[in-house]
Design a protein that fits this description.
This protein is α+β, with helices and mostly antiparallel strands. Helix content is 42%, strand content 22%. The chain has helices at 15-29, 51-54, 58-73, 85-92, 107-114, 127-134, 141-145, 149-156, 158-168, 198-218, 251-264, 297-315, and strands at 2-7, 35-38, 42-46, 77-82, 100-102, 184-195, 221-232, 237-248, 272-284. It is globular and about 65 Å long. Residues 291-296 have low confidence and may be disordered.
Length: 329
């Protein structure tokens, strides 16, 4: 059986959060060697070979892991148990946080669970895709599953239609492959209330890009990939990633990529609770070759950025920031 674990009350993004997350991954490694980190706050664990060793079923192991995480790191963990990574993740999110929920490895139980499950709960179905599906009356997983594959492919495209068709049937052939958390820096913004205004969401992303850029430059690192995770009012999430044309720690480039990711999600009427921006595939900044430009604007922007970094280092991180982000932590 597969455990999907979501760690609920980690410290705010930064060195403390990354250290706590790695400790949790190490803790999982005490129960099974087959652990896959899903930064910034989740993981998958295959406990099929551990139940006999610990003389506990999957739910018993999940309870022990929750207890250890709470005792050692004061972290409240939500655990979903299922026959595949997809089903474990889905069942984990179908209820209040801080609980253990299990789905038996039984076709009838899987079908019953997927019946009535909102389409937006399926991974890869963001607000824009959900609206497209709803226009055809495909609002739940069982309705999608009952739709012919060719019809879904005409609606969403060949690859996306095939993937959604399989997920709506609960089919997930992937296996948990061990992997440590990849080197990455993250920044998170929690709105004081569910935010509908896309301009406020973009302002928050501007702030997160500035924070990431500052940290990357402080650590003399650059990133090749930027990933945006959006958490909605119902606690479901959508994640989109973008590989940059060249590794960078330059805040304007990070900001432009973050805004592009945001636009691609089509969140016109989505109630957003949290935004998480991650700089991934890090490399040494000194090893990055920068593309030449025809004009002084880019060099001027970098000189201003360097001056702002010096001011932040001397007077604090909030002394220089975009006007649109004033008042944000």
């Amino acid at each position: 059986m597969i455990l999907y674990l979501h760690f609920g009350n980690l410290p705010l993004p930064g060195a403390r959060a990354e250290a706590a997350y790695r400790q949790l991954i190490d803790l999982l490694g005490e129960f099974t060697p087959v652990v896959r980190a899903l930064p910034p706050d989740a993981a998958l664990a295959d406990v099929s070979g551990s139940v006999r060793y610990f003389d506990r079923d999957a739910a018993g192991l999940a309870a022990l892991i929750r207890m250890r995480a709470a005792a050692v790191l004061d972290v409240d963990t939500t655990v979903g148990i299922g026959p595949s990574p997809l089903l474990a993740q889905l069942v984990a999110h179908r209820g209040a946080p801080g609980a253990i929920r299990a789905l038996p490895d039984d076709p009838q139980a899987v079908t019953a669970f997927l019946t009535g499950l909102p389409a937006a709960a399926l991974p890869g179905v963001g607000p824009a895709t959900a609206r497209t599906l709803a226009s055809y009356g495909l609002t739940t997983a069982d309705r999608i599953a009952a739709t012919p594959l060719l019809t879904l492919q005409r609606i969403l495209g060949t690859a996306a239609g095939r993937q959604l068709h399989r997920r709506a049937h609960g089919i997930d052939p992937t296996r948990v492959r061990p992997g440590a958390p990849p080197p990455a820096f993250g920044a998170e913004h929690r709105f004081p209330h569910d935010e509908l205004d896309p301009d406020r969401q973009r302002d928050a992303l501007t702030h997160l890009a500035e924070r990431l850029g500052t940290r990357l430059r402080d650590e003399r690192r650059a990133c090749r990939t930027l990933t945006l995770t959006v958490q909605y009012a119902d606690r479901s999430t959508t994640t989109r990633g973008r590989t940059l044309s060249e590794p960078t720690s330059h805040s304007p480039q990070l900001r432009a990529a973050a805004h592009t990711l945001h636009r691609s999600l089509g969140l016109q009427r989505a109630r957003v609770r949290r935004l998480t921006l991650r700089a991934e595939e890090l490399c040494e900044a000194g090893a990055v070759s920068r593309q030449l430009t025809f004009g002084p604007d880019d060099d001027k922007a970098r000189r201003i950025e360097a001056a702002a970094d010096r001011a932040r280092a001397r007077f604090g991180p909030s002394v220089v920031r975009p006007a649109s982000t004033a008042g944000m932590p």
